[in-house]
Amino acid sequence: MIIKSLRLLALILAVNLATDAAAVAAGPADSPAAKAAATIGFSVEKLADGVFAAVRTDPPGLMVDANSLFIVNDRDVVVVDAPEASAELITALRKITDKPVSFLINTHWHDDHVIGNAVWRKAYPEVRFIAQASLREYLPNTGLNNRRQMIEGAPEFAAQMQAQMDKGRNLRDEPISEEERVSYASDIRLAKHYMEVVPGTETVLPDIDVDEDLILVRGKRRIEVRHLGSGHTRADLVVWLPSERIAATGDLVVWPVPLVGSDQSHVRDWPGTLDALLALEPAVLLPGHGPVLHDTEYARQERDLFTSIDTQVAAAVARGDSLEAARKAVDLSAFRLQFAGESKVRQFAFGMYVTGPAVESAYRDATARP
Length: 370
Fold this sequence. Notes:
Order of helices and strands: HHEEEEHEHHEHHEEEEEHEHHHH
CATH class of the domain at 6-136 and 202-297: Alpha Beta
Largest sheet: 7 strands, mixed
CATH architecture of the domain at 6-136 and 202-297: 4-Layer Sandwich
Number of helices: 12
Helix content: 40-55%
CATH superfamily of the domain at 6-136 and 202-297: Ribonuclease Z/Hydroxyacylglutathione hydrolase-like
């Protein structure tokens, strides 16, 4: 669980109850399979021989934990990402195999992808962690400061949501819908789990830094760790299985609405990075958040969205527009309809995670001095 933007956390804590606030629409939650998965927060899906995705089953909301991937080889296991639910993931993995975990790959530096490193090391003392080289600097500095702010803010955020639920009201102080109630309850549960797991957890730095690419050959399997470029962060890695044509994308791809941080994302670079991903011609994508994708249509939609933002912001900068003027000039109405449709909750998510931070990210990079 982590709120993907500290500005989002600040907004939630200072929310004016007359403004929009909601969770992304959730799917059916009353089936036996959904109820069983909800007890541990994820379900395990077999993608190919020896390849298993641990996919989060929380109703989408303001707080999230990450998907993970188990790659079971002839003699060992390679894991992708170490979310807050890593203890539960280890239990699930041990039901699949008793082989040791030799490598764990962090796709980028956010807590919901790295905080479980210490748990994996305790369970598998010989495991070696792989990440993009910048994690070594980020985690004990900016990452630690961001974590402290989350630890300070998460309980207040959860309490505010609970207070509104107790009154039967949503964050706009309107009667709460069942969809909102389910999503708020999930956010509160994830905030509680965050406070149980994260404070006091050791920061584990990578053992192996990746600047460009790294290839692991594990028995008959080839695992490629690719730094295709920046996007969600400058530390984004993609784990590519060429024989199976499966890619674990980290947060370069997030469904149903991309996650953009104005201070850490690079919207100008994101389309090219997604083009490099698409050039691999993957058959299956495991996004950082959201269900397994069995085609590349959604990734193409993300690329087109970020290309449009970059193009429109570049034109604004060429005119000499300020950031605020650029915000007003950029028109994302067609993309808002494509990603959010008529859903008010998805429209809110699009505004929170895309419209504001993506324009600021593109503007920052477009105006940066060499």
